[in-house]
């Protein structure tokens, strides 16, 4: 098994719980994601993933494909 890693992304463009849920749901469908949860009030997405199964760039791309902007990591 690969190494599990946790990262918190700063995400802009979320306006409601529906936005947070959309991000969490989309990320949870990806292979290699252990846990994904977004919080629109804090403007963050917490993600735990397996580095051997998925690259961080794919996670960012998935969030941005939904129409949000990843501003970096916190």
Write a structural description.
With 74 residues, the chain is α+β, with helices and mostly antiparallel strands. The chain has a single domain, classed as Alpha-Beta Plaits, CATH 3.30.70.100. Helices cover 30% and strands 38% of the residues. The chain contains two helices and four strands; from the N terminus they run E-H-E-E-H-E. The chain has helices spanning 17-28, 56-65, and strands at residues 4-12, 33-39, 44-50, 69-73. Strands 2-3-1-4 form a four-stranded antiparallel sheet. Strand 2 (33-39) and strand 3 (44-50) form a beta hairpin. The chain is globular and about 35 Å long. The model has no long low-confidence stretch (mean pLDDT 96).
């Amino acid at each position: 098994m690969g190494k599990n890693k946790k990262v918190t992304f700063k995400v802009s463009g979320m306006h409601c719980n529906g936005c947070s849920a959309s991000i969490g749901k989309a990320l949870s469908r990806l292979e290699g994601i252990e846990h994904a949860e977004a919080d629109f009030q804090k403007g963050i997405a917490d993600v735990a993933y397996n580095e051997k199964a998925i690259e961080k760039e794919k996670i960012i791309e998935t969030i941005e494909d939904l129409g949000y902007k990843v501003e970096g990591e916190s």
